[in-house]
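ok, trying the design again with the full structure, not the truncated one.
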């Protein structure tokens, strides 16, 4: 999937978004200014007034993000959670949202703990089951939130079919593309209206920043509302973080593909291990939606989760013995991470207690397999 409508992804990742007047300097520089000077006649010669309204580095990052996802525009945020908040805030009180039954727990808690008080209602449904989706839709449903692969069970849902179902119900289809990245999956081309990212993860890629983004298929009224949430509600990423992100995205296609190749080998190792009861990885032929994943994605990604035969104690023990995999939440960085997901999600978590989630990094895969072998021994 390296070819997009705008060109090859590897080339776009390095060149898209950069403006012609930056070309004299090969390296990127952040514009660390909160405000911009006016000319003697009161005009703004470079078009910039104040960094909440616009900053050159943020504009370049947004052009880059739009090019990678094949969108008409992008809005950058200081976290993935601010990005999802901007999307939900574009709805009206009384509107209804359908979310997957397996979804990043922060999306669920945002709707429950923040947005329910503003009378935005939601229902969780198994999006792989058309009947469950039909039951979840109401006359007030205005947004279908899709996360595929899902966090943490790596469930796969059919973006094209769901976008069609959402549109037929008078709703928009939003896809959280954090796990797959535009390198492996392009939801706007499959009919989605908006793509959301936690750029904290693969796009940032080095576990040193938080960020988020919304990329839109059209520059319509909804896009304007998402933009308003950034500039008027003040949900803006710092210039330094925009610069870090643009710098990291240059290597995104190569990082993601190499991490996914490592993950495929690790999934195979785990599946054959006597201490492992189940492996959740869409690249395995045993995954219930393997065929759909291979149709919709160019590779299965670098996230996986697995359940241990000895229950919670065995899972905690294995995580405790890991040496190369760092015990930490988050994902998408060059370093491999492992976590006991249920205890991170806290009370109300629906994640099995015997489950570990792994974010596979760029270390040599033999070293990663060896680490898991000794941790599971
Ligand atoms: N979406 C997914 C799939 C995530 O995994 C996360 C964070 O883990 C988020 C959204 C939220 O992003 P952030 O932590 O940048 O607010």
């Amino acid at each position: 999937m390296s070819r997009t409508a705008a060109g090859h992804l590897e080339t776009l990742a390095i060149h898209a978004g950069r403006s012609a007047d930056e070309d004299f300097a090969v390296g990127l520089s952040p514009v660390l200014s909160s405000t911009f000077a006016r000319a003697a006649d009161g005009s703004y010669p470079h078009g910039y007034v104040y960094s909440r309204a616009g900053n050159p580095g943020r504009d370049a990052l947004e052009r880059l993000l739009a090019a990678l996802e094949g969108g008409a525009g992008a809005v950058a945020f200081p976290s993935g959670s601010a990005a999802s908040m901007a999307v939900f805030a574009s709805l009206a009180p009384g509107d209804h949202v359908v979310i997957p039954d397996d979804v990043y727990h922060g999306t669920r808690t945002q709707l429950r703990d923040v947005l329910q008080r503003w009378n935005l209602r939601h229902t969780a449904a198994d999006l792989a089951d058309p009947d469950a989706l039909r039951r979840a839709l109401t006359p007030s449903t205005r947004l279908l939130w899709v996360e595929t692969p899902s966090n943490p069970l790596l469930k796969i849902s059919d973006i094209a079919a769901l976008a069609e179902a959402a549109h037929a119900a008078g709703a928009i289809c939003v896809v959280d593309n954090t796990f797959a990245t535009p390198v492996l999956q392009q939801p706007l081309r499959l009919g989605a209206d908006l793509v959301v990212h936690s750029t904290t993860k693969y796009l940032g890629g080095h576990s040193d920043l938080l960020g988020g983004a919304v990329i839109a298929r059209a520059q319509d009224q909804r896009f304007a509302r998402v933009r308003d949430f950034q500039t008027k509600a003040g949900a803006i990423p710092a210039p330094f973080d925009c610069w870090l992100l643009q710098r990291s995205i240059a290597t995104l296609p190569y990082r993601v593909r190499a991490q996914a190749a490592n993950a495929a080998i690790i999934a195979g190792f785990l599946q054959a291990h006597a201490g492992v009861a189940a492996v959740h990885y869409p690249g395995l032929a045993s995954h219930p939606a393997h065929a759909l994943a291979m149709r919709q994605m160019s590779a299965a990604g670098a996230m996986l989760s697995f359940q241990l035969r000895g229950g919670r104690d065995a899972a905690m023990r294995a995580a405790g013995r890991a040496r190369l995999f760092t015990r930490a939440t988050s994902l998408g960085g060059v370093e491999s991470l492992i976590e006991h997901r249920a205890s991170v999600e806290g009370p109300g978590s629906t994640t099995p207690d015997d489950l570990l989630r792994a974010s596979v990094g760029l270390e040599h895969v033999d070293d990663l397999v060896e680490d898991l072998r000794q941790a599971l021994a």
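Keeping the full-length input from now on. The first helix runs from residue 9 to 15.
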